[in-house]
Write a structure and sequence with these properties.
There is one protein chain. The protein has 546 residues and is of the alpha/beta class. The protein contains 15 helices and 16 strands. The chain folds into three domains: 104 residues, Galactose-binding domain-like (Jelly Rolls); 285 residues, TIM Barrel (Alpha-Beta Barrel); 58 residues, Orthogonal Bundle (Type 1 dockerin domain), CATH 1.10.1330.10. Helix 6 packs parallel to helix 8 and helix 9 runs parallel beside helix 10.
Amino acid sequence: MVDKSDVLTLGESYKIGVYVKFVGNSYSNEQRFSLQLQYNDGAGDVYQNIKTATVYKGAWTLLEGQLTVPSHAQDVKIYVETEFKNSPSQQDLMDFYIDDFTATPANLPEIEKDIPSLKDVFAGYFKVGGAATAAELAPKPAKELFLKHYNSLTFGNELKPDSVLDYDATIAYMEANGGDQVNPQVTLRSARPLLEFAKEHKIPVRGHTLVWHSQTPDWFFRENYSQDESAPWASKEVMLKRLENYIKNVMEALATEYPTVEFYAWDVVNEAVDPNTSTGMRNPGSNNKNPGSSLWMQTVGRDFIVKSFEYARKYAPAGCKLFYNDYNEYEDKKCDFIIEILTELKAKGLVDGMGMQSHWVMEYPSLSMFEKSIRRYAALGLEIQLTELDINNPDNSQWALERQANRYQQLVTKLIDLKKEGMNITALVFWGVTDATSWLGGYPLLFDGQYKAKPAFYAIVENVPPLPTPTPVQVKYGDVNGDGNVNSSDLTLVRRYILKAIPDFPTPNGKIAADVNGDGNVNSTDFSAIKKYILKVIDVFPVENK
C-alpha cells in the first residue's frame, strides 16, 4: 500500500497500472488479484476497485484501470491485494511481487451532445433520473452526461444509514447528556459532494433510503450503542425513540445545510419483505452476521414499518412523497405481502407511492407480470416509480446488445401505455451512470464505459409517442357546481369552502370557476363578486376582463 495524497490531484481522472507476479510450488497456477483505491470521505474509509484480473504463476501480469480521485477525498492510498474473500485460503494470504506502478492523467472521452436528451424525450410522462455514488459522478463526462439526460438524482450509498450515522458524535452526545442513548447523531459528510452537485444544478433528489436491514451498523441496535458483539440488543421502546430521532436528525440536517435542495421523494422503508418466511417479513437477526436478516424485526418487530412512515411524515419536508421500495416486486407472492403493508399504510395516510426497483434480467420478469403488479399497486391510489432500473447483460456482442435494446423498448413502451391509461407513474430512474460503474458489472445500462449511447438508448428514445394535445378546459366562472348556471347554490358552495366546511368543490374545475378575480385563491373577494353577479350588480367577473 502506498500513500499518494501528495501526488494524485483531487477531482482528476487517472489511468492506473501495476504489474503483479507470484511464484511458489505450493500454489496453484492462477490467482485473482485486485488493484484498489482507498480514501477517507470524512465519515470513514471508502474502498473502490480499480481492476481485478487473473494472474498466472510465474508471469508478470498488468492490472490496469481508470479512477477519479473524489474532490472531497482525504488520505488517498493505492494498494494491491489478492481478491478479497471472507474466508481466505493459505494461497489467498501469499506473498507476491509488484513492479512498474504508473498513474497517468486519463484522456477522458467526450459525451455525445447531439443525441436526444432522455429528460426531454419523456417530458410530460415522468421524471427520468439516474442513481450515482460520489465516485461515479466525479469524472467530468459523468457530470455532463447526467446533466444532459436526467432531472432526478438518487444517491447510490451516501444517504443510507451507515453513511449518515455518526458513531463518534453519537457516543459523545450520549456521554455529554447523562447517558441519553436515544438520540443518534448524523453527518452529511459522505453525501456532501452529491448534495453540492444537486444544489448547484437545481436537480431534485430522490432520498434513498431511511430504514433498511442492510447497510445499517449493528451498534445502532445495541444498548448504549455498544460495539461489543456480546452486548444485548436495545429494547423496542429505546429503538422506536432512536428511530424517530434518527429520521428527525437526517431531515433537519438536510433542511439546515441544504435548504435549497428539493427532496421530492424518500424511500422510507427498503426491502422489508421476505416471501420465503411464514410471516412474509425478514427473519430477526443481524444482516451483518446472517445476510438477509433484520435487526428491525429483532428489536421492534413488524411495527417498525408503520412507525418509520409516521416519523417520516412528521419530519419530511412539505410536498415530499413517501415511498415503500422493494425488489422482485412483480412476483405474485411477494406482491401479496407488499400490498398488505401498503394497504395498512395507505389507510393511515402514511404512504404516497410504491418504488419498484426493477432490476431485470433478459428473460425475467415477463411483461405480463410487470403489468399485473403495477395495476395492483396503482389500484391502491399510489404513485408508481421505477427506482433502480437496469437489465443485466453479461454479453456485449452486437446480438446481445440488440436483444437488450428490444427488452428495454418493450418495458418502456408498456410503461407509457400504462401511464396513458391512467396509472400514476411519476419517475423512471436508472441505477448507475454507465456500464463501467454499474454494481452489476457487465453491460446493463443505456450508456457504455465510454459514455456512448448503446442500442438500448435509441430503442427507447425513438419509440416514445408524443403526448396527445390536451383539450382546452372550458370554464364558466361562478358555476362551481357545473350545472350551467350561476346562482345561490354556487354561492353557498363558495361560502362553505371558505369556511372549510368542505375540502373541495364537487366538480374537477370547481376551484378554477370559483376564483372569479383570478388571483389564484378562493376567498371572500370571490364570494362578494359572485354575489354581485347573481344580483346583477356586475355583468362580468374581474378575471374575464384580464
